[in-house]
Design a protein that fits this description.
alpha/beta, Rossmann fold, nine-stranded mixed β-sheet, four-stranded antiparallel β-sheet, 12 helices, 38% helix, globular
Length: 314
């Protein structure tokens, strides 16, 4: 991006946000983040292996003259190059639940958690069901997933997507995630904690609605919610169980600070993530526990949203 365009980006985005980015990261990484927010993202999807397979999907896309690119780190995901989401929704493969339109970054937490057939899994804040249905497919639809969602309307959307994808091992639960740990102590083999967040990784400079509601006050409020959900999730996890903590935001308050607090308050450790991902940085350790370098921050670009992912063992 030219310096002129970078200046434009800085002028468009909230001042507190850009200042935080440049205070947190090197100027090179900060520039890269803003550059990534400038680019229009490709539509991406994954094949629903409960109902379909990647070979048949590729054949359909070729027949429809839909250009695509394979994803190196996930054999069931594709980047769509020449049509938008609306066009894909007109296809029978979409209407039949053979594919799921999902951002690449959103596919990472389930891959890191890596649930297997027969596992007992909790998705603590599950709507709209992207990761829930992905995990069900990864488990070959064998085992159990409790998909929890607080918001009633979002819960309906979750149920619709779960049914559409044929994810029959999923039980939908409409409750406050903060109480799940008390209700199900030491119960789950694996937990996905993809918390509500300020969504900085989704900012698109030319789409003002992606950042118009952002504020430092909102970040602070969300970090309090995230702590409560983290506490609940750790209680619900079996000793020796695995949990993935993820957000689609970039600041340390909702990411490293939460994990650092978790390390001080619970018997947990951070594990390495062995996915071969591009355009990522390690978790920040300045002022935090050194093991946080094992977390990853996905930087936004035309292929993916910004994201933060950490793998935790109880």
């Amino acid at each position: 991006m030219e310096a002129k365009s970078l200046l434009y980006a800085k002028n468009k985005l909230p001042l507190d946000f850009t200042q935080e980015i440049y205070n947190t990261f090197s100027s090179k990484i900060a520039d890269k983040i803003l550059t990534g927010m400038y680019e229009k993202r490709y539509t991406t999807l994954r094949v629903n292996t409960i109902k379909y397979n990647i070979e048949d999907l590729i054949a359909v896309l070729k027949k429809e003259n839909i250009e695509f690119e394979k994803v190196e780190w996930y054999e069931n995901a594709l980047i769509i190059k020449n049509v938008n989401e609306r066009k894909l929704q007109e296809l029978e493969i979409y209407k039949n639940g053979y594919i799921y339109i999902q951002s690449l970054s959103s596919m990472i937490p389930p891959l890191v958690l890596n649930p297997k057939r027969g596992d007992k899994v909790l998705d603590l804040t599950a709507a709209p069901g992207s990761k829930t249905t992905q995990m069900s497919a990864m488990m070959e639809n064998e085992g159990y997933i409790l998909a929890n969602e607080l918001d009633t309307i979002r819960c309906q959307r979750l149920k619709y997507n779960v049914d559409m994808q044929g994810a029959s091992i999923v039980e939908i639960n409409n409750a406050n995630g903060e109480i799940i740990g008390e209700k199900y102590p030491n119960t789950f083999d694996k937990i996905l904690l993809d918390v509500p967040c300020s969504g900085e990784g989704r900012f698109e400079i030319e789409d003002e609605k992606t950042y118009k509601n952002w504020s430092t006050k909102q970040v602070e409020e969300l970090s309090q919610v995230q702590r409560k959900l983290f506490n609940s999730a750790i209680k619900a996890l079996k000793p020796g169980g695995e949990m993935v903590y993820s957000t689609c935001t970039l600041n340390t308050k909702e990411n490293e600070e939460i994990l650092n607090w978790g390390l001080k308050n619970f018997k947990i450790r951070i594990e390495d993530i062995d996915l071969k991902l591009k355009n990522t940085t390690k978790g920040i350790t300045k002022g935090f526990d050194n093991s946080l370098k094992k977390a990853i921050r996905v930087l936004p670009n035309k292929y993916q949203e910004g994201f933060f992912v950490a793998k935790i063992i109880k």
